[in-house]
Amino acid sequence: MPLQNRVNPFGELMAVPARGTFMGNRGGTIHNDNREIVRAYASRRWIACVLEFRGRHRVVMSPRLYTELFFLDEAVALAAGHRPCAECRRDHFNAFRNAWGSAKVMADEMDLELHAARIDSKKQKVTYRERVESLPEGSFVEIDGAAWLLWKDRLFRYSPGGYVDQRKKQPELTVEVLTPAPMVRCLRNGYKVSVHPSVEASG
Do 190 and 110 belong together in one domain? Predict the structure, then answer.
């Protein structure tokens, strides 16, 4: 049985076979000794990491160690509220920090603003409505209950194993935005997000 550690653009944790191309965590341990998810997050430090770093080897969901989470791609990680890791993805973290608006902003400052923008006091995902034409490439939106990635002039429907459908962007359409507002700001300011190669296949 797959572990419940795959993250979708809604920020939900799923038990599906597809692992994806990025790993991350939510600030610590959110599973029990039976490798079951018992809480939504451990702290405000939600990060997205590379799958391999300096030859380190981990047993996924080991007791009392941080919970490894997996994402289809970085666009999904951003939509779920995870910023680039400052250790294993230092160049991307620096680029993200520059796009934030200040090369001197600290990770804790970003995490404080991000946490308020991704999850509310009831631990529900924060979303907001905006016209598609105003959103940058790499943003995720909800249409008819599904998550769609905005990429170039198209929208691509998310599935755990890759993007499986696409439709033409309707600029005048108002949608529910899944990617937290600070992440959207960074994308607008030029942060280059990585997307799964299935985007090209489905297009």
Answer: no
